[in-house]
Amino acid sequence: MIHVIAFYLFAAIVVCSGALTILSRNPVHSVLWLILAFFNAAGLMVLLGAEFIAMLLVIVYVGAVAVLFLFVVMMLDIDFAELRAGFVDYLPFGLLIALVLLAEIVLGIGLWSAGPIELAQRAAPVNPEMSNIQAIGALLYTRYIFLFEAAGIVLLVAMIGAIVLTHRARGGVRPQNIAKQNRRRPEDAVRNVNQPVGQGVEL
Amino acid sequence: MTAFFQNLGVPFEGAWFLSTIIGILLIALPVMLAVAMIIYADRKIWAAMALRRGPNVVGPFGLLQSFADGLKVFLQETIIPSAANKTLFIIAPIITFTVALMAWAVVPFQVGVVLANINVGLLYILAISSLGVYGIVLAGWASNSKYPFYSAIRASAQMISYEVSIGFILICVVLWAGSFNLTTIVESQKGYYGFLNGNGFNPLLFPMAIMFLISAMAETARAPFDLTEAESELVAGYQTEYSSMAFALYWLGEYANVILMCALNAILFWGGYLPPVDWAPLYWVPGILWLFAKILFFFFVFSWVKATVPRYRYDQLMRLGWKIFLPTSLLFVFLVSGFLMLTRYGGAQ
């Protein structure tokens, strides 16, 4: 009973906040609705028994990705009229993508229940006594190890690429050298001068 | 407790629901009381180190000071700036406060005395603490004012930076314990050298314990990392526009987070509810008292640091997080996993 209530609660909030992500006028509100959608999707994962994925969803998407979104969106100078002008232009393309995604989901479900092909076997749950984390680890670090490492390399390349593209040497900055600062002692910085009255100090 | 309600004739789901609600209240109310008392303790310790008296008027030794403050704040008018984004302005402190209490669900107070003994307890805490940043960012943005906004940007950059190294530090502990479950992590710390309880006595994990303590200060934006409310630069930081109960919610949430971080220090590195020395008579003391003693000790360390260490500069803070803690904690993930590979998991194959 509680499961059913929880499922419909989470699912309804995911759908509503997904719609509001698109519909709300203020981009910051959009990001916040998106966060709510992520969070409730994590709730759905917990109901499925995939608690590891749920926690990762919250840590990665809510904790890191959405914070960066929010960062960028908060600092934008938003022109609402201009923002809404593109809506109609992009609508057909958006609908096309939505259709493709829908078709993929339908195909996926179809393949799952299509019967005796190898995919169904592969997607079958592993030993239920194993905890989530162990089950994922056992697959990820044996069967899919090369794919996993390739994904890591792709991310590394993306990160280096982003840094290379945005990094530029700026003139006129004064970098901090912390080691030098820490090495500095009062004797290096302070000088006692016994100055005769009426004359300036030469520093 | 579920069984107790079932014996009274309540069906299982109702019994589970009732017992969970009671469990939440049993944790949340004492935490709130502890927050009130710990604010008093913080002020007293801080005053003692500055050779002052601290709060000493309300009640015996000033013990009721926090409650008097709470009452005062409660009776004040809630001011919402006219340029603020009202809904988010009100939601932001609620998020901070709720998130500060949510994480307590997985903290084990004794063997089996925990609200939710889940497999991914530590990940849950990481997830919840990563939510904490929203309360601050939203406050900064919704206030529609310069200083809160600066503060919010600072706070989110700071929290994200230190969460990375905290993540790696936690991985070390998890590798050693072989589990994300907090109770299992505590139990795995039994009997170092045959008589000590606590990962902190492990030479491979001791540096992690120190780094976790420092990262915890940065994560909760306590002094010396309290750049988010550096009063000489940012007035009162993200709380500048807040008054009355909204302000109090930030205040309470902040201290609840500090206590949580102290509890995590105790649980992950110093044996949680286990006595520090593995000696039979010490087990007669209830485990919850050991946990409280450790939390109080770490809170004392937090106050001590607050009273004695000057505030960091922002670039120093970022340097410490990204250039020192991140590589060091990554190195220790490598060392710990390598050590375990060579010893516990049967060497290189």
UniProtKB/TrEMBL annotation, chain A:
The chain crosses the membrane at residues 6-24, 31-50, 56-78, 90-112, 144-165. It is a multi-pass membrane protein. One of its GO terms (molecular function) is NADH dehydrogenase (ubiquinone) activity. Its main location: membrane. It is an enzyme of class 7 (translocase). It comes from Sphingobium ummariense RL-3. Belongs to the complex I subunit 6 family. It catalyses: a quinone + NADH + 5 H(+)(in) = a quinol + NAD(+) + 4 H(+)(out). InterPro entries: NADH_UbQ/plastoQ_OxRdtase_su6, Nuo/plastoQ_OxRdtase_6_NuoJ. NCBIfam families: PRK06638.1-4. GO terms for cellular component: plasma membrane. The keyword NAD applies. Residues 176-203 are annotated as: Disordered. It is found in: Cell membrane. NDH-1 shuttles electrons from NADH, via FMN and iron-sulfur (Fe-S) centers, to quinones in the respiratory chain. Couples the redox reaction to proton translocation (for every two electrons transferred, four hydrogen ions are translocated across the cytoplasmic membrane), and thus conserves the redox energy in a proton gradient. This is NADH-quinone oxidoreductase subunit J. It comes from the Bacteria. PANTHER family: NADH-UBIQUINONE OXIDOREDUCTASE CHAIN 6. Keywords: Cell membrane, Membrane, NAD, Quinone, Transmembrane, Transmembrane helix, Ubiquinone. Its EC number is 7.1.1.-.
TrEMBL record, chain B:
The chain crosses the membrane at residues 15-41, 88-109, 121-141, 162-180, 200-218, 248-270, 282-304, 324-343. Its main location: membrane. It is found in: Cell membrane; Membrane. Its EC number is 7.1.1.-. Pfam families: NADHdh. GO terms for cellular component: plasma membrane. It comes from the Bacteria. Keywords: Cell membrane, Membrane, NAD, Oxidoreductase, Quinone, Translocase, Transmembrane, Transmembrane helix, Ubiquinone. GO terms for molecular function: NADH dehydrogenase activity; oxidoreductase activity, acting on NAD(P)H, quinone or similar compound as acceptor; quinone binding. One of its GO terms (biological process) is aerobic respiration. It catalyses: a quinone + NADH + 5 H(+)(in) = a quinol + NAD(+) + 4 H(+)(out). It is a multi-pass membrane protein. NDH-1 is composed of 14 different subunits. Subunits NuoA, H, J, K, L, M, N constitute the membrane sector of the complex. Belongs to the complex I subunit 1 family. NDH-1 shuttles electrons from NADH, via FMN and iron-sulfur (Fe-S) centers, to quinones in the respiratory chain. The immediate electron acceptor for the enzyme in this species is believed to be ubiquinone. Couples the redox reaction to proton translocation (for every two electrons transferred, four hydrogen ions are translocated across the cytoplasmic membrane), and thus conserves the redox energy in a proton gradient. This subunit may bind ubiquinone. HAMAP family: NDH1_NuoH (MF_01350). This is NADH-quinone oxidoreductase subunit H.
